[in-house]
Amino acid sequence: MLASRLRLCDLKLCRRLVRLVAILSCVALWLEPNGAVRAHEFWIEPSSYQPVAGSVVTADLLIGTDFLGSAGIYVPDQIDAFDLISATAGARRKIVGRYGDRPAGKFTVSESGLAIILHQTAPTYLTYSAAEKFDGFAREKGFPEALAQHRQRGLSSDSIRERYQRFAKSLISVNGQTGGTGADGYFGMRLELVAETNPYDKTPPATMTVRLVENGAAKAGAKVTVFTRHSPRHVVHHSFITDSGGRVTFPLETGRDYLVDSVDLLPLDNATEPEGAMWESLWASLVFHVPQR
Question: Could you please report the per-residue DSSP string of 159-204?
C-alpha cells in the first residue's frame, strides 16, 4: 500500500514538473533577452503536408516569430481541442497523446483528400509589467489605440493583465495532389481562418483567398499577416486588411510553406473577470504548403 502511494506521488510530481517546464518554456519564448514582450505566432506544423494514406503523421505545436519556432509538449489541461478532420469524409477525431509528448500530436491518416489539423488552447494569462510592452504588442498586431483606450478606462498601466487563447489550423492533403479534393470550412472556433482555396489542387492555384471569422461572422477591417517560407533562412511576410466579407487574397508561389496569422484584441471588465484580466487576445493561424507544379 505504501509503495503504491509513493508511486502515485511520484507520478503526480512528474506531471507537475512537466507542466511547470511547459509554462516556463512559454514564458521564455514570449520574452526577449532585454525582457521586452514580443507577439509570437502559434501554429501547427505537420511532419508531412502530403502524406500517403495509412502513414503516421506527427504534428508539432510551434511558437515563435518569422515562421521559425520551438515545439511545445502535449499538456492535456492546456488543450481545449486537438482534432483531425477529413474535409471529404466529414469525419472528426480527437488527437490524443501522452503527457509530455513531443511532437505533441501523432495520428494515422486514412481518407484521401484534404484534411485539417485543428488545435484550440485553453485560456492562458499574461501580465505586462510596463505599459510600453503592452503598447508594443498591440501596435504590432494592429491596435495602436489600445493603450490610450486602456487609460481612458481608468485602469492602471503599471500591471496590465491579459487573457489569451489560440486557434490554429493546418491543411494537409492525403495522397498528395491526387488527393487534392475537399474544402476547408468553419469549425466553430471563436476566431478562425478559413481557406477558401485548396492549395493542393492538381493545378496549384496562383492566389489564395482566406476568410477571417469571429464568433461565426465575417471579421472585416482586421489585420492579417502572411508569412511565406522557402527555407528557415528565407521567410518574407506581408500584411493585408480583410474586406467587408472578412476576406484577403494573396499570391502564391509553388514549393513554399505559408503561415497566415490574425489577432483580435478585446477589452474585458477586470472587476468581473475571474483572474482580473483587463484585455483578451484571440489568435488565429492557418498553415499550408503549395506543391511544385
Answer: SEEEEEEEEEEEEEEETGGGG----------SEEEEESS-TTSSS-
pLDDT at 293: 76
Give the whole-angstrom CA distance, residue 49 versus residue 153. 46
- Compare 7 and 158 and report the one with higher pLDDT: 158
Residue 42 has pLDDT above 70, yes or no: yes
- CB–CB of 114/171 below 8 Å? yes
- CB-based burial label for 186 (10 Å; 0-12, 13-18, 19+): exposed
Mean pLDDT of 152-175: 96
Q: What are phi and psi of 63, to 5 degrees?
A: -135, 135
**Is-contact 197 172, C-beta < 8 A?**
no
Q: Is the pTM of this model over 0.85?
A: yes
Among 29-38, 75-84, 155-164, the minimum mean pLDDT is found in 29-38
Stronger pLDDT, 180 or 224, i.e. the higher one: 224
Which residue ranges form the domains of the chain, and what is each CATH number? 39-290 (2.60.40.10)
